[in-house]
Write a structure and sequence with these properties.
Arc Repressor Mutant, subunit A, 2 domains, alpha/beta, single chain, 3-stranded antiparallel beta sheet, iron-sulfur, cytoplasm, TIM Barrel, Elp3/MiaA/NifB-like_rSAM
Length: about 400
């Protein structure tokens, strides 16, 4: 089970936002995230808010689309009553869990609810995550016909023993099939990888990277495995049932991936993300990294509008009960002060290829730039042009770079 939600202020039952949250909202992009919390099997490394059939305690997956549409309608009422301008959704992202555990018709129905309530901008990006063993050709065709433009497959690895360590259930041979089916349906394709799994060698990782490149997806994500407390994986490592994770090997894996992706024509645009060109970047995720507005639908989903962040009740039963009672499903809320917003701006802006304007940093942060260049962490040419962007070494040490730049917050 996922860990507890953050401790913060109680969220109002009507969900209304303070006036400060909608100030200048017309200048910010708006997206919608839909959390589908169902999985066939709980992966040992996962601490997301997800539930297998045995953990649902009478909650019906068949009713979930109706509940999500109820929240979408509530979102429209709350934003209008709070004074937010009408904004069509620029991006929609269905994540989980495994969204494709639900019928494609349910996903399309939820997307239709978003379109009816907010509208979709021309050329809107609409993505769903999927496991390779959770879709058939007709599912992907229905999604494309219903307005989806993109599918992100959780490949994670091409090596059976690595998948087994992660408790992933799909056959690696299925990945080329689902990529082909998605292409036939007219969907853009992203493949997601995880590296640094206990017992994974550099050669294992090379096999996964080359397998991805053989499929020529539009987009690739590669995330270092994070061991979260309370997960099965954390317990296995603590008991010595799996070999410890080697940080130096994990760094080598990142460098190998970045080298191979670059050689194959992929550009990095965020520390853990690459695309064939700028048009195939994940615009939804860029909205998170740039501090835009989004409404998160579903149990445990997080939302952000103008520096106000809130999150829904975690369990699907509690979520459904609040909606049935006609109140906001939000369980907690926080309003970020100026220092917190600046910290997030630096933290997230540093991670993306566009980087940060040097002039936007405080005096302390600007003083650090020369030393960061000397340490090989920041691109010197871009810095001379007035922008701070990370080198490959800097991406490996992004957290350390941010800590040094955050002198700009405290001065």
């Amino acid at each position: 089970m996922a860990g507890p939600l953050p401790i913060a202020d109680p969220a109002p039952a009507d969900g209304l936002l303070p006036a400060t949250a909608v100030t200048d909202a017309a200048t910010r992009a708006f997206g919608v995230y839909v959390h589908v919390p169902f999985c066939r099997v709980r992966c040992g490394y996962c601490d997301f808010n997800t539930y297998t059939a045995g953990e649902l305690r009478g909650v019906s997956q068949a009713q979930y689309a109706d509940q999500a549409v109820d929240e979408i309608r509530l979102a429209g009422r709350v934003l209008a009553a709070s004074g937010a301008p009408d904004r069509p959704a620029q991006t929609v992202f269905f994540g989980g869990g495994t969204p494709t555990m639900l019928p494609a018709t349910d996903l399309v129905r939820m997307l239709r609810g978003i379109r009816d309530e907010f509208g979709l901008a021309s050329g809107a990006e609409v993505t769903t995550e999927a496991n390779p063993d959770s879709v058939e050709p007709e599912d992907l065709q229905r999604l494309a016909e219903g307005g989806f433009t993109r599918v992100s497959f959780g490949m994670q690895s091409a090596v059976p023993h690595v998948l087994a360590a992660l408790d992933r259930t799909h056959d690696p041979a299925r990945v080329p099939l689902v990529v082909g089916w998605a292409r036939d349906a007219g969907l853009d394709v992203s493949l997601d990888l995880i590296y640094g799994t206990p017992g994974e060698s550099l050669d294992d990782w090379r096999t996964s990277v080359e397998s991805v490149l053989a499929e020529r997806p539009d987009h690739v994500s590669a995330y270092a495995l994070i061991v979260e407390e309370g997960t099965k994986l954390a317990r296995q490592l603590r008991r010595g049932e799996l070999p410890a994770i080697d940080d130096d090997l994990t760094a080598d894996m990142y460098e190998l991936a970045d080298e191979r992706f670059a050689a194959a024509g992929y550009e990095w645009y965020e520390v853990s993300n690459w695309s064939t060109d700028a048009t195939h970047r994940s615009r939804h995720n860029l909205g998170y990294w740039r501090g835009d507005d989004w409404w998160g639908v579903g149990p445990g989903a997080h939302s952000h509008v103008g520096g106000v962040r809130w999150w829904n009740a975690k369990h699907p039963a509690a979520y459904a009960e609040r909606l049935a009672a006609g109140v906001s499903p939000a369980g907690g809320r926080e309003t970020l002060d100026a220092a917190a917003r600046e910290t997030e701006r630096v933290l997230l802006g540093t991670r993306i290829r566009d980087g940060l304007e040097l002039a936007s940093l405080g005096a302390g942060g600007r003083r650090e730039v020369a030393a960061l260049i000397a340490d090989g962490l920041v691109d010197a040419k871009n810095a001379l042009a007035g922008r701070l962007t990370l080198t490959r070494r800097g991406r490996l040490l992004a957290d350390a770079v941010v800590r040094r730049l955050l002198y700009s917050v405290i001065e």
